[in-house]
Q: What sequence folds into this?
């Protein structure tokens, strides 16, 4: 999950969104 964004904050948000979608 590093290609999405180099920032850890953005990665955390994206992970949360993916978890809700799946």
A:
């Amino acid at each position: 999950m590093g290609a999405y964004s180099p920032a850890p904050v953005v990665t955390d948000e994206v992970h949360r969104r993916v978890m809700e979608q799946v």
Notes: The two ends are 16 Å apart (CA to CA). The longest helix spans residues 8-21.
